[in-house]
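Supplementary Text 2. Reproducibility record for the structural model of the 395-residue chain.

All settings were left at their defaults, and a single model was retained for analysis rather than an ensemble. We include the record here because the model underlies the residue-level annotations in Supplementary Table 4.
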Amino acid sequence: MTDTSIWAYPWDLHDIGLQAACHRIAAAGCSMISLATSYHAGRFLQPGNPRRRVYFPQDGTVYYRPDPARWHGAEIKPLQADIVATEGDMLAALTTRRDQGGLKVAAWTVCLHNTRLGMLHPAHVTRTAHGDPNFYALCPSSPAARDYVTRLVAEIAQTYAPDRIEVESPDFMGFSHGFHHEKDGLPTLPEDDFLLGVCYCPYCTAAARAAGIDAEDARRTTAALLDAAFARELPQAQFSDLASVGIAAFAHLPALHAYLLWRSTPVTSLIADLRRVIPKPTELMLIDAEGTAATGIDLSALVPHLDGIVHCAYHTSLSRIGPLFRQTRALLGPSKSLIAGFQLFHPATRDRADLARRLAATRPHADGGNFYCLGLVPSARLDWIRTALAALTQA
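Retained model, structure tokens:
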């Protein structure tokens, strides 16, 4: 595999030491580091970090030095994380090191998942069929949100010239895994989560209407389906084939089905905008996973605008990995990169032998691997990567 990388956070590079961290990554057999350059909040247990064992990242910030001149006139603007001033611009340090013969650098960039910005700009977040805001998710149909993401990616690409930009969440975020301390007493079924994540903000409904879709009918249908789910004493699936057929499960509801098909339009056009502002040779890679058609990802439409895909198979069964990567390679064609993304978390990945099997299952379709994540796992687990890569070369 020619492109192998480890995802990392800037505070881990500071605490481990830049040189020591790069040495760990190279010793694992990797040629690149994928550094978080824009990220959201969380609570991180960090066995691989010698100083901050439990860490709460500053919410919705960027980990580089934005140029105020680039953001003149923007409604939504980034906030530089405090640790950039106190602990240094790790993106700059890594690209300087790369230019002197060090590891290649990917800018891992979270786009629309940003609670801090959502709270500041509620007019630009996704909204449920009942009109409730999802503050953690800026909407890809919002002109201000699109401008924010485009300027963000342009600034990183044009200022730092990373080898590639790996974009995460340029689409419609789902309902779950968006906010901290989530409460759900139903509990929601996959179909409920899906419907709660369908955006009916003014920007989406106006654009859908302009495309000839009855957005109000779609909204009413979605709201009625959710109201029925909320009224049941116990959860009861109405769309049991959703996991297998995707949005085709709603084909008998014409307005809703048309609206769901339309949702890929703003996501595709946003990715196209990003491609236009990224100068070569920096590559644009989409961080994707199975099932993202539900969030507006249409890979066949996106392929012309991408240099490749980092396809995360964190929880994909071993038997599914080969067919999934074969299918993704067929969509990408032979000339674009397909990178396999795997967690080093246990028990999602049981041990070094399991990682080796999972990585081997991506052959001959994948060009490389990305592994998550430097500070969030014991440093001894990085050796799992070395073992898995060595097994590939011996096969």
